[in-house]
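Following up on my earlier thread - several people asked me to post the actual chain instead of describing it. Fair enough. Here it is, all 126 residues.
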Amino acid sequence: MWQECRAAWELTRLRVAFRYHWLAGLLSERNSPEEKKYIDMLEQLLQKAAYWVKQLPARYSVCAAGRLCRAGRRGCKPPHPSYRFGYLYPAVSLHFWRRESGQLKEGRWAVWYQNTWDIPRIKGLW
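Reply from S.P.:
Thanks for posting it. Predicted structure:
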């Protein structure tokens, strides 16, 4: 329990630092040495966060499937998220951290840039 709380605290602390440096890089001049300094700091924070994510136990998918089956919903089929690779994929892979870092590096701000959601599927079109 203590290790999980410590990892959660460290990840939260790193996320705050990541967001601070991301915003500072966003406010700096494009392609400046100052922006490069912030991008380098984001990469360091990402590496530290990846270390802490690996410390967390990976038991979510079994628990979720069990809870859905006990609730009697969906006939004990696997969970059906709006994206096909599971609810914890963005958290475990630090997807949104990497996406924000990539946005700052490449200057791409489109809605579809590294998007994880399948919008037609969310709307129920299939």
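The radius of gyration is 18 Å. That should answer part of your original question.
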